[in-house]
Target: SWI5-dependent HO expression protein 3
Amino acid sequence: MYPSSSDNSYPATSPSPRLSPIKYSRERSTSRPSSRTSLRAHSPSFSLDDPVAVRNQVSTLKHTIRHQQAQLHSLENIIRIGPRPYSTDLLDDNNMASTSTSPPSAFASPTATSTKVKRRSSYDVLQNLAGPESSLPLPRRDGIEENGIREGIPMNFGANPASPTSYKRVSSPTRTLSRIPVASVGNARALADEGQPPTQRPSPSGSTSKLSPIDPDSSIASSSSLIPPPSPNRRISLTPGGTTKVLADLQTGVVNARNALENTKAQLRLSQRSVAQLTRQTEDLKEGRERLRLENEGLNNVVARKERLLQEVLERARKAETEATVLKSQLKSETSTSKKALREMEASLSESTALSQKSEREYITLRDSMKGLIESWKQDTDRLREEMRKREEKLKAEAESVGKKYRLLVEEVKGVQGDRDQVKKLKEEDKKKGEEVEEMWKEEIERMKGEVARSARESEEANKTAKHLAEELARLRRLMQRAGRRSSSSPIPEEDAPP
Model:
């Protein structure tokens, strides 16, 4: 059975009711690695030859790709929907307006504020809510004057901040975004505080020290529970009291709405994370179910194959039993037939022994006769070899004499050919001389014609002799060929040999 991939990459952590959402998200970020950097552990029984393991690996890879794509889409949606950072010009203008409208006696000594517990800014809270891997643009207030009223941080407005009746006034976090002038809001708060009895409030430092510094719900509740008491240094405004109360109520409503919105956003993030975790767990469970289904199919196939093999083994056993009975009957019949065959073979063996003894005696007589024949045949072959050697020597001598005669005839034929060439040359010379002296020496020409005729007759005679010699040469060749054939076919008798 394959281990579930959720054990390796997505550990199942249930949110504890004792932890705040930010603490829970921090614990989960430390206990569970990010899906971008987490690697699913390979199954120890994974093999490239196993198709079930290959399919499981492919399904886990597909799940990882789908999860990363979903996370990418969610981050893109958060970036598109998320708030944009505030402009620095607007923050500087609001800070200048707040410092110009506030009275100088309203500021407390810096030594008294340094002893208070320092609150975290909204940027840190939002950064913890978004997580370390978030790329959302978060608003951040950088430009704060030294003597100005910082937004979102309560200040002491009393002559003696160390007195037990001192309290903090919480400024509106939406002061930079409100369209109402800051001076009128301050006067409206001063008029709204008229006629209210001073109530003893618990120290904010003690309450914040008991709460978690990273719990946004506790910080929001503490900030919303602080009701601004009547300011000792209030201004006298000429505006009616009802309008200032309405403005103060609207401002507190905006603060409460903003706090509720932040709470809902935090809860939404928690729910989205829990939903994402549950979807991952469901996908892991689906993949585990798919792997188990594939493994179950493989086991079913193995069981079916084993059953088929068992049936085949049983059929083979039945066939073997039937074949054993048949073989037993065949063994009985074959033993009886083999006994009969043994008796017949013993009789034939006795006959064959008698025949073998007779054949041995005949072999001995034949061997002695063959020895005599071999010796006589050897003597005949030796005598024939000697005769063949003598005839070969005689034929060689005759061939040498014929060769000499042939060479002489060839030389004579070459001499006749030289005479023929000489006659041709003489004809050409006679023709030239006749052309030169044809007109002048006619009588000489006639004499030369007679000589030419005579030379022609001589050449004819020479031609006749050459033809006669060629015929003689052909006849000699035929005689030599006949002699060669006779020597190869049968020995030539001595009286028929040429001289």
